[in-house]
Design goal:
Protein name: N-alpha-acetyltransferase 80
Pfam families: Acetyltransf_1
Family: Belongs to the acetyltransferase family.
Number of helices: 5
CATH class of one domain: Alpha Beta
Largest sheet: 9 strands, mixed
Organism: Mandrillus leucophaeus (Drill)
Keywords: Acyltransferase, Cytoplasm, Transferase
Order of helices and strands: EEEEEEEEHHEEEHEHEEHEE
Radius of gyration: 38 Å
Number of strands: 16
Amino acid sequence: MQELTLSPGPAKLTPTLDPTHRMELILSTSPAELTLDPACQPKLPLDSTRQPEMTFNPGPTELTMDPEHQPEETPAPSLAELTLEPVHRRPELLDACADLINDQWPRSRASRLHSLGQSSDAFPLCLMLLSPHPTSEAAPIVVGHARLSLVLNQPQSLLVETVVVARALRGRGFGRCLMEGLEVFARARGFRKLHLTTHDQVHFYTHLGYQLGKPVQGLVFTSRRLPATLLNAFPTGPSPRPPWKAPNLTAQAAPRGPKGLPLPPPPPLPECLTTSPPVPSGPPSKSLLETQYQNVRGRPIFWMEKDI
């Protein structure tokens, strides 16, 4: 056993580790010395008026980890192993799917889960692009998501919404795989056209065969209690803006002052330019960078469609 002896004078702590190696710790009111080994250990002076100092070896430091306990990187999902499954058939993945969508479009978690919970085979229907987890016992990885809704007065069309791929997996072909899977899913159920909107992915959808189209009305819910005449009362798309009208600059009767005296006439209008800019020849081209449609926030949107 180790012994600790206290005395009125300087305290002395003498733990015995080995008969050949002895360590002594001497505490006193004067600058103390910590002696580990009188033969080969350095002395470390302690001063109560100064902060302790720590000195590092300027040489490189190596950190060696046990190969058996090093973390393993999760391999990227394989395109050949991806599957497309409805959300309502995999309720254990609702939370992961909600996190994926909210990472792109932040929203209340309860509201997002409620929206995903409305998925059904009768539409709207939420689909997840899944990849098997490297660990067979773990749940699949949610790679992407998209929602399909019926289109008013177009029984063979579907509206594609909320298309998103996990941020860490973008640019690897998973977006194309998701959209191609939607086409296969829709064709197998008798649909022949897909519609969608986008703000900044026009070229991506153009490479997939989509072209600019007209707005459609998606049905966010279906019910036999609502007659078609009531649904038709809703607008099928954004109403066109009225053309801008220039102010009338024709001469009008000069207004009179308070005492009936006519006011001085307005200054004359500037003379019209004799030259006008040349009119481009040929039919106007339909640019993919121009659109006449806007969302409720005034942001331009592009309506696109594809026959499948």
